[in-house]
Structure formats: C-alpha cells, structure tokens
Design brief:
Layout lengths: L3 E4 L4 E4 L7 E6 L10 H19 L3 E8 L15 H9 L3 H18 L7 E4 L4 H13 L3 E3 L3 E4 L15 H6 L14 E6 L17 E3 L3 H11 L3 E7 L3 H16 L4 E7 L2 E3 L2 E2 L10 H6 L4 H9 L7 E3 L1 H20 L8 H12 L4 H13 L4 H15 L15 H15 L3 H13 L2 E6 L2 E6 L4
Parallel strand pairs: 3-4, 3-10, 4-5, 10-11, 12-14
Antiparallel strand pairs: 1-2, 6-7, 7-8, 8-9, 12-13, 15-16
Length: about 450
Amino acid sequence: MTLHLFDTYARQERPFTPLAPPQVRLYACGPTVYNYQHIGNLRTYIFEDILRRALEYSGYAVHHVVNITDVGHLTSDADTGEDKMEAGARRTGLMAWEIAERYIADFAEKLKWLNVRPPHVWCRATDHIREQIAVIAAIEEKGYAYRTDDGLYFDTSRLSDYGHLARLDIEGLQGGQRVDLGQKRRVTDFALWKFSPAGTQRQMEWDSPWGRGFPGWHIECTAMAAKYLGPYFDIHCGGEDHIPVHHTNEIAQAQACYDTRLAEFWLHGAFLQLDGEKMSKSSGDFLRLESLVEKGYDPLAYRFFCLGARYRAKLSFGWESLAGAATALDRLRTAAHAYGAPSVPDDRYVAAFKERVEDDLNMPRVLALCWELVADDLPAAAKKATLLHFDQVMGLGLAKWTPREADIPDAIHALAQQRQQARVAKDWATADALRAKIAAAGYEIEDTPQGPHIRPRPTA
C-alpha cells in the first residue's frame, strides 16, 4: 500500500505520488492575524502537521509554505464590509501593522506549544503586493477581469467549471441571490483589487495600475503559492470553510493565470464544534489554548484529543472529553518513560502503523494500536522503540517527556505514601479516603506497575 489521501477536488481517496519525487511541495492557508487563533483554528494546523510528518515518514522531502493574511480579508465573503485588519486595529487601539505583529508572534508560540513544526517559509500578504499585482494584471490581460466603482473583479462566468471544488450550484446561487450586488455581474464574482474609498486614507493601501487600494483576500495565496512552489504543486491544505469561497477562488485565479488548478491534491480539515456550533474568531466568543492551560491542561493533551478523530470528521469539544484525553496521554507518557531505554521497533507493529497512517492519516486507529502495544507482552525496550517510532507522526514528544513529580508538594507525596501503605495492608477504606483528600487538594493519583503517579488534576 502507498499513502492515500482524500482529495476534495476529486471527492475521493487517491494514492499520493509526488509530481517531482522525492520532493513534496505543500501549501497551507495560514491565519488572518486580526485576533488570536482559537482551538478550532489550531485543530487545522495539527492536522497539517500530521500530514507533513506522515509525508516525511514516507521518505519524502517536504517543502512547506504557510501564508499570513495581514490585509484584504473583508468581514463578508461577498466582498463587502470592513477589512478585518482595520477592524482589529480599531478594536485594540493599535495600528494594523502592530496587531499583525502581535498575533503572528502569538500564533507561532501556540504552534510550539502543540509541537507543530513551523513551515519552511512564512509569507505575508503585505510583503508580496508586487507579486499580487502582477497576477491580477495577467488575469486582466487574459480577459477575466472587469472594473467597477469600488474595485477590479474576477468574472467567474468566463470559467465553465467555476466552483467545481465545492460542487457549487451556480444557477441556484444566482436565482436565490437576495443581496445587493452593486456593480458586480454575478454573485460569485469576487474582488481582485479594492479601491480605497474616496476621501479616506486606510492604514494599509498601495498604488496599483487600477488605483490606490489593496488586494482582495484570495489573490495572495494564488500569487505566493506560485512564487514559492510553482504554478502547479502537490498539496494545498486548509479548513473546510475555505472550500466554497477562498479555495474555489484561488483555483479560478490559477486557471485564468496559469491554466492549472494550482494543486494536484486539495485537503481540508473539518470544524471543531463547541456545543454543536462552529467556533468563530469574528464573534469574539471562542476558546484559546490559554483557556485550556489555565484549567491545568498540557497543550499536548489537546493535540492528543484531536488525534482521536479523523481530520476530515467534525469533532465536538467538551471539557470531559479533554480530561479523558489528558488522562490517556499521561498513561501513554508514563508507560513510555517506564519502559526505559529503547531497542528496536517491532516489525509487526511498524507494519500495522504504516498501514493506518497510509489510510488517509487514520490517527484514531493509530491510537488504538498504541494501546494494543502497551498491553502486549513484548520486551519493554521494544515497546519503547515502537512507541517512539509511532511518535514520528503523532508528534506527542514522548522521547522528551519525564515525570514532573518534583513539582508536587511534599504534603501530597506524604499522603500518596500513606495511601500506598494502606493499599499494601488492604485497608481500602483508608486508601479511598486518602485518594479523596489528594483530589480535594487539586491532584489525582494513578496506580501503575511502577508505583503511584501523581499529577495536577485538570479543572473543568
């Protein structure tokens, strides 16, 4: 078997073969840096990290590019409303350039917390205005653009297969359209370049052949992906919310400019849901990774939680589920640490692991394999080596983890010792009472073959 991935463009799993092996060119849509990233956003970057690790595990040399949207993303996908960066600047009282720096730095830090490898190239939209103007000019020259009073727009009627990625019902969208199009010809047409409103000065605006203004959101990815990876590369990733508009429009621009669909594979991670609803930065009501840490959770417990579902399946977040993931991660870490020095990975488990990774990154089955391994009667050194082999893709940092019981107060250690003595004496009532006392102090205890393991108790 070879690595199989679900291609949104084809709507099926396909065997993956690089366009120019062994190199794999990978582009992932990065954040719009007008606010902090919430845990739903971060789920997508965990998925993309698993993908990159799986590709490298398969022997490929990955070149990974991620964009930073720091201009041009309007509050409405219909090319109306305010630029999100300008709105963010007004909300914070800072300059748009300042909030970009703040949120870019925070995003990079959160990736470190989650053991997500940084890309080889970060590319910011504001650093590539010249490239975007060049692509827009090529699109216009080939007859795919028209001008209105507020900007230059892409004429989607020129593409017979516009919307194929999302399987859009164009006639239905046109017929059911109830918003004012202004001077747009079709509801699906989108801005390539927006003019600065007359009599105003934006914080972020540039001169162009069409007038002073700023690029539309979609053009940056088409231009920057082609610059760093070429006009046709291996894989383009993003969240599923990018399918109907952003990625559809990236493809349209590439078709007009390069006569390609930009990428051979299009992969999308599904939403994280909170109480059945998609999380949204724009609403201001979302959970940051700090929210989990403040309740006592290791950020990697969230990574472990995300591994419990297929990347393209919706995942519901709940504190009880996160607590379960944290407990399971601690069990796996404790087991791996207790196994001591590694020897050689077990061939049978390695083959099973490879088969599950190649099944469109089937991480739930990989986690199940971990527990099969822990319960196996293999020598401890082989178990350790095999778990570390798995962790090349899981990314849980098992090799570096050590127990942190030195941070546990002496009084809690004393209670745990008393409880252990009660257990040896089979005084279960006293042992249970001591466990309850430890829990009331904010700690939990797990009985392992190597003795009791104490850790701070996550709070819901």
